[in-house]
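Researcher: Please generate the 3D structure of the following complex. Treat every line as part of one assembly.
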Amino acid sequence: MRRLIGLLTIFVYAFMHLPIIVIIIFSFSKGEILSLPIPGWTLDWYRQAINDERLRAGLLNSLKVATVATIVASILGTLGAYAVQRYRFFGRQTFRAAVVIPILLPGIITGVAMLTFFAATDIPLGLLTVMIGHATFGFPVIFNTMAARLSRLPRSLEEAAADLGANPVQAFWRVGLPSIRTALMAGALLAFTLSFDEIIVTIFLTGNQNTLPMEIWARLRFGMTPEINATVTIILLVSGLLVVLSQRLTRE
Amino acid sequence: MSSAASKRLGFWISFLPPFGWMTVFYLVPLGALLMYAFMRHEYVHVIREFTWENFRQAFTNIGYRNTLIRTLWIANLVTLIDTLLALPVAYFLAFRAGRWKQPLMILVLLPLWSSYLVRVFAWRIILGYNGILNGVLVHTGLLHEPSTLFLYNKFSVVLTLCYIWLPFMILPLTTAFERLPVKLLEASADLGATPFRTLRRVTIPLIMPGLLAGGLSVFSLTMGDYITPSLIGGAGDILIGNLVASEFGVAANWPLGSAFAGVVLVLLFALMAGLSRKGVLENL
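Model: Done. Output below.
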């Protein structure tokens, strides 16, 4: 039984990582067509990816969107978690349940719902509407991490601050926030990466400016090209470092 | 300022911004979507008149109805397969991984942090006619010539969906196993229960909230996916998400698209309402 579970685990891990390994290997392959056998090795695709104007423009837009969305989501998520964990109010449980809906419902629902809303209110589509969309599903991500951390944090710290004459804002800024900073950073990292990789909501909410996943999506319809493999391998390396970092942060 | 007044101020400062944002940018848009679903569509115009027509079409048109049934069927199948794949991994991570646990957890998270689009597309490189699987099978002599049976069909769609959403099942299930009081399992064994009976009567009920939480995520994500069928599936393998996307895109019939989205929305809300009473939502 024990060996069977071990073997199954190895099998599932292989299944989970085979596609990523394939992408990484082909990003170094000389061949333009992604099939076996591999004709030889090259770094040319990396050179092409780095020098590709449209990929660079997409990357820049993605970084803009993810940064703004993460900042907005961090503020909303932290405030919301604070309200739920530190105050008893009418509808608290309903609020708690409602907040996580954007990550429970599939992206396509969020996407088309916001599209109809922006159309009805005559708000033009563009990077701003994408940012609003991404902030909306980033909010519950940060809310969850923060609510979990706050529930383990003794309230007495902030009460002591209040007894010593701090107002709620000071108590939060000087005492509450420093003790939840690592959770906030971990949540923000996750929200940032989710936004950076998001495609479904973006498809419906973007105007004529492409994010990086949108640029990749536009090219994928004509088939995978080796420079996309190279782009993704670079992203994978960066996000790998971010996962390790966020794991360190949440372990504290 | 009195302490009570300052406390009240603190509450409103922390409550109003998230509440306001959620209302304006999420709940109102969901309402707008549902309103569109009851509006009339003529040529490319939306006419603000109440009608059931969109829902009638969604359920009576044979193509639409089959797509809805196919989506439900595939979402169930993917959830079931991911449960079976995740169980041994979650058990291993919680009880057997030891000092390897941290790196193994990172390996579960890593795919979630890397391009969803490309991970879907990678299966085309693996399963295609010139793909890696065919290359290996022909090279080892198991096949005489490459097979077209692996790609652009239900098999490849289900396989890819299982692959893409698997981490969403492993994570809550691992947490559930970690919280499992091992003493209860020992007690059950001490009282003479067979391992199978312990599993059925003690282990499974205790990990159920985590299992249902993961299942809800996988089911919901599959119900809304349309990238996978459009990259990996054949013409007959589209899901309800493809219908939504095309009505909001090239077909430009927003009321009908809203009706499809509305069906998904109501289904998932009903599922969430049913599961929230079992404490599932806290396990996400």
